[in-house]
Design brief:
The chain has two domains: 7-79, Rna Polymerase Sigma Factor, Chain: A, CATH 1.10.1740; 127-191, Arc Repressor Mutant, subunit A (Orthogonal Bundle), CATH 1.10.10. The protein contains nine helices and no strands. It has helices at residues 7-29, 36-51, 60-79, 87-90, 115-121, 126-141, 145-156, 161-168, 172-191. The longest helix has 23 residues, at 7-29. It is extended, with a radius of gyration of 23 Å. It is mostly helical. The N and C termini lie far apart (74 Å).
Length: 192
Amino acid sequence: MPRPPSPADALFHQFRPLADSIARGFHHRGCRLIELEDCRQVARMALWLACSRIEDPLSAPAFLSRCIRGALLHHARDLGRTIRVPRREQEKPGAKHPWVLTSLDAPLPSGEGTLLDLVADEAPQAERLSTEVQELEQLLDQLPARQALVIRLRHLQGLGCREVAEQLGISRTSVSRVEHQALGRLRQELRA
């Protein structure tokens, strides 16, 4: 027996074009780093989850817009593959290079290959890399066990803060704090 549509269902159908519009705008403003269909799915899921929390129908459009944009930003932060330039570098006086996102698959201006080809040609040799890893492991052995583990998981295995926090059973804030302390100690060791 089909269930009767709830007020949340009606809101979802009413505001689905809003979610799709926000997803399209996010896709275009984000230099197409995330597929349009992924943006649309994230936006619709956020809309669906937010519709059940609506208490005042008059404030629904503003509330839903914030929820959808927030979900898209979280998705881009967690799953997007970009290299972020620190704000200090972007705002240096006299910086002449505009910081723009560029795909590594984009063809070079000369038309001969891509940026990825250049990066692959300049990759360090395996011997040099193995000695660098050994030196890093020696530095990590000087850190307290928890700090060394966080650095290994975050930087050597490439896990995100959320994944490390789940593995260690601590909060993401704790992971960030431990990582910050460990990197500070590593910087001190390198200066000494």
